[in-house]
Each structure stands twice: as C-alpha cells, then as structure tokens.
Amino acid sequence: MTYTCFNVEVNDHIAHVRMTRPERANSMIPEFWHELPEIIDDLSQGDEARVIVLSAEGRHFCSGMDLSVFAGDNGISVQGDSGHISRQRASFRTTALNLQRSFTSLEASRLPVLCAIQGACVGGGIDMVSATDLRYATNDAFFSIEEINIGMTADVGTLQRMPKLIPEGIVRELAYTGRKMTASEAKERGFVNEVYDDQDEMTDAVFAIAKEIASKSPMAIWGTKQTLNYGRDHSVADGLEYIATWNAAMFDPDDMAEAFNAQTEDRDPQFPEHKRLRKGL
C-alpha cells in the first residue's frame, strides 16, 4: 500500500516504518495522523511482523505538528465565528482525542516499537517517541517540548508519558522552558537507551536489537509488553495479579519446549507466527 508520509517494509519478521517527508523535516500533516495508526494496527493485527522499527529519512527525525493541522474546517483552531462556542470547543476536544489515539496505537500494539532518532525530535515528535518501547539516537539528536514556545500546552501524550520515563522534575523543566535536551542528556536521563555517532551506526544497532527481539516467542514478547505497560499504571499487587492471570490464559508450553530444545540442540528456536487478528466482527 502507498502512503503519503510513510514507507513500510517487512523482512525477517521486522517491520520498518519510515517517515518519508525529509523536505519538510517529517512534519506531521493531516494525512500523518490517519496513516500512522492504520499502519501500526495493520502490522499488529497481522502475522508477518514481530517487532517494529520506526525511523525517518533526512537530517531531522520530526519537526512536530505541521501548521496545516491547525487550518481549515477540520483543523484544531477555535478562532473564527464566535457563535456556538461550546460546539467549537467540543470539536477541538474531539480532534485532540483523535490525535492522541494515533500515538496510543504505538503503545497498544502487541509488537514492541523501537525508535531511531536523528536531528530534531520536537513537539509532536516527542509525543510520538514517548509512546514507543525503546528509543535510540544519534549524537546530533535533540528533543524539545516545543508547544510551550508557541503558546500552548502539549496535549498529545508527552506530559502523560514522559514522566514515566525520566524524572518528573526534568520533564517540568523541559515543558516549562521549551529548552533543547541533547542526545547525551537524554541518555543520561534514561529517555534514550543508547547514542551513536551517525545514522548508519544507529540503524545497524537498532536492527540488531530488533532481530534479537524477533527471535523470541511472539507470545512471550506480547505478554511482556502488556505486563510492563499495565504495571506502569498500577500497583505492584495489581501487576502481580495481572501477570498471573495473563500467563494462566496465554502461556504456551509448546513455545517453552521449543526454546529448551533449541538450546539443547544449539540452534535458533522456530516459533509459530502470531495468529492474524480479525478486524471488526
């Protein structure tokens, strides 16, 4: 399928989702917000991929929300006719919720999402990568909660997810000032796992990690992601109850047997693919 903002390839169980508008620093135009969740949902519900790598062409990873999203009848601006202000506000809220769902698709996917970041990752870019599982960056990468610099409060996930990843005091400083956080600081804070000299080195490293993840039992990986996500937002007691129930329902003894046999026979394990999920009824 052809997309306006993305290219998608699946090889060896690794889905590579690449943003393809480098001439606009991969800004998030209206089509972006529809295409991203469609792509992620299709991959997650399919049976080919076991892990997703999200990257971008060009010098910059993402310059955030494109100004075109604020314009037109379907935009998020509430300026204009002062009549029926409640309906205008309700429309704004609904649009914001829809934008949020685009990034929640990354978090909700049964596949881990690894993100390779170079250059600018600002505004909506941080909202997006905060919803992924693992983040990696080049030395020239930087991060900025840019919304404060244009007179608005970030509303698509950064303020909700970033405090789960790095100390809240640092998030508040970034959100109040809009300052740039360098790649080295992002690694020090724990926002990115590793920093690389250039894009080629980063891409090779990220795909090596993705390959390792893809070699594991897809069901075990899915359960691990679900359990980590659940535990992040619940108590330890709730998380323990959740994983007990999950494994009671989802643990596959055949996968465990294959893992043990592969170790004994000094070979790579061969696990069945995810079962393709039905869309709708």
Ordered list of secondary-structure elements with their pairings:
Elements: E1 6-11, E2 14-19, H1 30-45, E3 51-56, H2 85-108, E4 113-117, E5 120-122, H3 124-130, E6 134-138, E7 142-144, H4 158-161, H5 168-177, E8 181-182, H6 183-189, E9 194-196, H7 199-214, H8 218-232, H9 236-250, H10 253-264
Parallel strand pairs: 2-3, 3-4, 4-6, 5-7, 6-9
Antiparallel strand pairs: 1-2, 7-8
Helix pairs in contact: 1-2, 8-9
Q: What is the CATH top level name of the largest domain?
A: Alpha Beta
User: How far apart, in Å, are the first and last alpha carbons?
Assistant: 23 Å
Total individual domains? 2
CATH superfamily of the largest domain: 2-enoyl-CoA Hydratase, Chain A, domain 1
Number of strands: 9
| Uncertain stretches of 5 or more adjacent residues | none
Structural class computed from helices and strand pairing: alpha/beta
Largest β-sheet summary: 6 strands, mixed
Q: How is the largest sheet built, in terms of strand order?
A: 1-2-3-4-6-9
What is the arithmetic mean of pLDDT? 94
Please state the CA-atom Rg, rounded to the nearest Å.
Answer: 20 Å
CATH architecture of the largest domain: Alpha-Beta Complex
Q: DSSP helix count?
A: 10
- The proportion of strand residues reads 5-15%
The 3D shape can be described as globular
